[in-house]
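Predict the holo structure. Ligand: iron/sulfur cluster.
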Amino acid sequence: MYNKSSSKAEEFINNEEILETLKYAKENKNNFELIDKILKKAEPVKVGKQTKCQGLTHREASVLLECEDKNILDRIYKLANKIKQAFYGDRIVIFAPLYLSNYCINGCVYCPYHRQNTTIPRKKLTQEEIKQEVIALQDMGHKRLALETGEDPVNNPIEYVLESIKTIYSIKHKNGAIRRVNVNIAATTVENYKKLKEAGIGTYILFQETYHKESYEKLHPTGPKANYAYHTEAMDRAMTAGIDDVGLGVLFGLERYKYEFAGLLMHAEHLESVFGVGPHTISVPRVKRADDIDPDKFSNGIDDETFKKIVALTRIAVPYTGIIISTRESKEIRAELINLGVSQVSGASRTSVGGYSQAERPHDTEQFDVSDQRTLDEVVNWLIKSNHIPSFCTACYREGRTGDRFMSLCKTGQIQNCCHPNALITLKEFLEDYATEDTKNAGNKLIQEKLDVIDNQTVKERLIKNLSEIEKGNRDFRF
Ligand code: SF4
Ligand code: SF4
């Protein structure tokens, strides 16, 4: 039976409820009175000085996903953009993945690191190699990383991950520093999540891959990840252990996207219901080509138009959750998605183990093919010239604004007074330390324009002071 507050995976991601939802969505796909009501419910509203949004339930959002009317699609895109502007402004947060090890004992059929793949070289970074990778990332200008490892208790035990996090935080090369380490490792125990929390991780990210239990079991035939319930309940264990910020994700292409979309929103509703805080982020990767993986073998692949609609509806349904898009996607589709609700992008990613410290992008241990191959300076330049503020901000985590504290600031709209100046501060640091001349000029012009729109005089004055301190060589200011 469906129960969003249950601790059992099959009750909070309930198959019958998803099937009922899809049926209800189909029956109402042309019920324009209902659709209009749903769209109006999702509109941002002004309450005093603050802007608020209610979001949508999985049923409501599924009706919009099912609707094929062009005018409605147009309204969906406009609304997604409006919500994005209301809560995230023009800011786009930038991060990079860091692959520590591709040893893995699981059998995931869509990932080249699966155990049965004997052609891919296996590699695990030493602490010295991690140091070289981090220096290379810092020299590009990165401040925020997402750690990635396969699941292997012998080669990548939790102690290895913890030691690696410590190494990463300890490296200060020139003006560089990694200020937030998010972690994407296999589902684990409450005890291990507590250790990750103590190590100072940012977000704990774990992709569900698919919410469809039967497909999940077929796609994960061997290894500990084959246990659907243990994997699906991982976020509950992480939050029980005190990790406030968790990141969900579906690998689109594995199952029917309408099923996944409903499951993803039900997962968010479950966390909100049990812990009072929804997911911090949602990632929306699509299956990509890699070593022994052919994406054409997966019959549920989605085209760009469907993908855009999913992103826009995610923005509308969970307005306070960040949406992440990686370099799996091309620069063209990324350019469209940042106007439909995406709030974080990876930049200059290398998806191989030890890829950053090598002059040429290595392909031998790549987890997936990178579509957007621009340098970080090129990504920053592109964002600036499309009137977005590239942000390397990590302030909330460092100020202890995580979980419900973060969400309550977010929901009362007060976060705006932090995000905007922090984005400008961290962009200024990038321009001073890592940018090419063209990016620096364009960035400084953008900072001036975005400074002019701040009407809170106290914030503005403090920001101007911080920016001038950065020009003098000082670093790490934050609101
Ligand atoms: S998806 Fe993760 S768990 Fe599965 S094979 Fe790849 S690295 Fe291993
Ligand atoms: S101030 Fe907080 S929410 Fe805003 S960009 Fe920085 S870390 Fe994110």
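The pocket of iron/sulfur cluster (ligand 2) is lined by residues 93, 391, 393-396, 415, 418-419, 422 (CB under 6 Å). Residues 90-373 form a domain with the TIM Barrel fold (CATH 3.20.20.70).
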